[in-house]
Amino acid sequence: MTGDHAIALRCAAERQRMVDRQLRARGIHSPALLAAMLEIPRELFVPETSRAQSYSDEPAPIGHGQTISQPYITALMTQCLELQGTETVLEVGCGSGYHAAVLGALAARVISTEIIPALAKQARGNLHAAGRDGNVTVLVADGSEGCAEFAPYDAISVAAAAPLIPEHLLEQLKDPGRLVIPVGDLEEQDLMVVVKSGGAIHSRAAGGVRFVPLRGGHGWR
Ligand code: SAH
């Protein structure tokens, strides 16, 4: 057995444990989502220096002061979007590209914005290495403004903490459409699930979370 093959086998076993203990045991039930997270090699989205944490139950550093979210949080946010496979999804905060890969497995197309150019470049490389770049486009942009070029979106996922729900994101959301976003202060936030339907907007909190701050025009100064 080659070293690479042994590592791939070990990662597959760790991935199975992550899906069983961190996701299924905590109420993540979407079969397509569990299958995607069982399949996508998360270790390819974590830098060499954090690789031992690829399947840990916590966020991991990805450089530039940013983190790849805890697997459970990625799963929870994705489950809240209730994707059927036909959607165009906007992600704000591409980071490592891992969540974009998960969204890409469950939707038709993903546009993922990242404000730090070096991270966007790294994410493109990670997505390519994982064979997940076919329907995922990574753009360097201030996603707090949304991304008018490909709007409107069936679903929007924001991976950084916002002081308020940015108006542009609501405007770029289709009707019907769903948005998940952590809203609160710099210390802690509520994960808000916003549903646009029949011309009305409803939101509910899906639990307490801690995200890195949203920067840009509608983020924190
Ligand atoms: N979804 C990511 C986690 C991202 S962490 C993953 O799976 O790895 C949040 C990311 O949001 C950071 O990379 C940060 O640089 C980025 N970010 C913060 N403000 C942003 C903005 N206004 N537009 C786009 N990206 C932003």
Summarize the structure.
The chain has helices at residues 3-23, 31-39, 71-81, 98-106, 117-129, 167-171; strands at 60-63, 66-68, 88-92, 109-114, 136-140, 153-158, 173-184, 189-197, 200-209. With 221 residues, the protein is α/β, with parallel strands linked by helices. The protein has a single domain (3-209), classed as Vaccinia Virus protein VP39 (Rossmann fold), CATH 3.40.50.
Give keywords.
single chain; alpha/beta; Rossmann fold; 7-stranded mixed β-sheet; 6 helices; 31% helix; globular; binds S-adenosyl-L-homocysteine
How would you characterize this protein structure?
The chain has a single domain, classed as Rossmann fold, CATH 3.40.50. The mean pLDDT is 96. It has helices spanning 3-23, 31-39, 71-81, 98-106, 117-129, 167-171; strands at residues 60-63, 66-68, 88-92, 109-114, 136-140, 153-158, 173-184, 189-197, 200-209. With 221 residues, the protein is α/β, with parallel strands linked by helices. The protein is globular and about 55 Å long. Bound molecules: S-adenosyl-L-homocysteine.
